[in-house]
């Protein structure tokens, strides 16, 4: 049994944004970095629950992207969040033998973009990731979208969100996914009302790395896949992260 020590730490990006992380040290040589999407934070219930389930097998770092939670700045919908994730991964380097990224929704695209640009982590899990930002359907008015949202009401989190102008140049995951050269697990929900599952499937189809695609038959969006089927989600992720990488 590992002794669990959690510290909240603030890291500075190269563009002078403070990024808040929860670093859960459990004595492992491998670390998972959890990357949320729009309107979630490291302290959201779903991510706190996930951390508890992962920390028996890995150290875990959960982060607040800029404009969310306890980080500073304004959210740019992946245009500048690459700096946030780069800063967190650089912090983890040197402390761990292996670094794994798990991203959700816009965070799912962000982890793919990071690896394509930096090539410095060992495995990726991309959940409900999008083909390109402008193609996201985001049918927020449908009950399939707003009912799960209402179930996750956390006023402290909602009041912490600070968006900036949405119209910025952004890297499209579909344009960079072929550059990824590490094992990647793509997860999607068939009933996702926000990012239709074809987005994630198109990324999987174009990827040339060692890869796997898992579709949750009645699954919704991002962290909802974990909340709806926690045992299946956790088993899928842990099995993927623990399996040895095939040599080429």
Explain what you see.
There is one protein chain. The chain is of the alpha/beta class and 248 residues long. It is built from 9 helices and 8 strands. The chain has helices at 45-54, 81-92, 106-118, 143-151, 155-158, 173-176, 198-206, 223-228, 230-242, and strands at 5-12, 18-25, 30-35, 59-63, 98-104, 123-127, 184-189, 211-216. β5, α3 (106-118) and β6 form a beta-alpha-beta unit. The model has no long low-confidence stretch (mean pLDDT 91).
CATH class: Alpha Beta
What fraction, in percent, of the residue positions are helical?
25-40%
What is the first-to-last residue Cα distance? 36 Å
- CATH architectural arrangement: 3-Layer(aba) Sandwich
Order of helices and strands: EEEHEHEHEHHHEHEHH
On the 0 to 100 scale, the average pLDDT is 91
Beta strands, count? 8
Radius of gyration: 16 Å
Identify the overall geometry.
Answer: globular
| CATH superfamily annotation | Alpha/Beta hydrolase fold, catalytic domain
Short summary:
The protein is α/β, with parallel strands linked by helices and 248 residues long. The protein has one domain (5-242): Alpha/Beta hydrolase fold, catalytic domain (Rossmann fold), CATH 3.40.50.1820.
